[in-house]
Amino acid sequence: MNMSPKHHERFGISSDTIVHARGVSKSFGALQVLKSVDLDVPSGKVACIIGPSGSGKSTFLRCINHLEKIDSGLLLVDGDLVGYQLRDDKLYELPPSAICRKRAEIGMVFQQFNLFPHMTVLENIIEAPVHVRREPVKEATERALQLLSKVGLAEKRSAYPRHLSGGQQQRVAIARALAMNPKVILFDEPTSALDPELVGDVLEVMKTLARDGMTMVVVTHEMGFAAEVADQVIFMDGGVVVEAGKPSEVLSNPSSARTREFLSRVL
Ligand code: ADP
Ligand code: MG
């Protein structure tokens, strides 16, 4: 496998930085959705992104995962370039094969679970390890069963997604992300589609991952989770990072009136 050189040193970034964004901007037509966004997520840390609907949170996660191309700025994941602006205004981009390889190192968990409906729980989890990573089925299955135990669903290995509750589907989606041994998992409002009584189990699994040292970027409206688990909270509004810091700063003692106004609506 082509091990391209890492770019931490070149950009003066600590080698344990998993996500590094500087001045990341993105427009859809005339609409500028991200306006010079900065973020650093060290290995093993949890960043929670909060903010009103339409503030660019999902778009930012999609940029980190190469699902959207950035227009300008610098974006590195584990020292590999997602994109950056050169002085001559050309944007450096990874070739498609490298993007595929890179995306396989980044887990993504969506609001709507996005499990493959025609596959069992076990088949969902081993799909990428077997077909993308070429792992033997036996090994991938053993590991999948361990991961299912970890998310409390060992007995559901043969079930189809439609027979699971939303909370169970989301825990399968987390196990599926973990099966690729990702460098980071991006969560986009993972509990927003769930009935309230199912939210707790999913958050418990996410807390366990955080305690185990998984690097996570979590877009969420669960302020209790952010307060307890996040190493840093980022408040975005209108495509801008308005405020970022420890939960005790941003959630308990925000310096910006916009953050205070948002928190007064969601808390
Ligand atoms: P959030 O996740 O914070 O609710 P999004 O990143 O989904 O915000 O969206 C930010 C803005 O970008 C919204 O105004 C949305 O309508 C717009 N947007 C998102 N994706 C696209 C797209 N593919 N094409 C055009 N506009 C988009
Ligand atoms: Mg969103």
UniProtKB/TrEMBL annotation:
PROSITE patterns: ABC_TRANSPORTER_1, ABC_TRANSPORTER_2. It is a peripheral membrane protein. Gene3D superfamilies: P-loop containing nucleotide triphosphate hydrolases. Residues 19-263 form the ABC transporter domain. It is found in: Cell membrane. SUPFAM superfamilies: P-loop containing nucleoside triphosphate hydrolases. InterPro entries: AAA+_ATPase, ABC_ATPase_HisP-typ, ABC_transporter-like_ATP-bd, ABC_transporter-like_CS, MetN_ABC_transporter-like, P-loop_NTPase. CDD domains: ABC_HisP_GlnQ. Coiled coil: none annotated. One of its GO terms (molecular function) is ABC-type amino acid transporter activity. Its main location: membrane. Belongs to the ABC transporter superfamily. This is Polar amino acid transport system ATP-binding protein. It comes from Rhizobium miluonense.
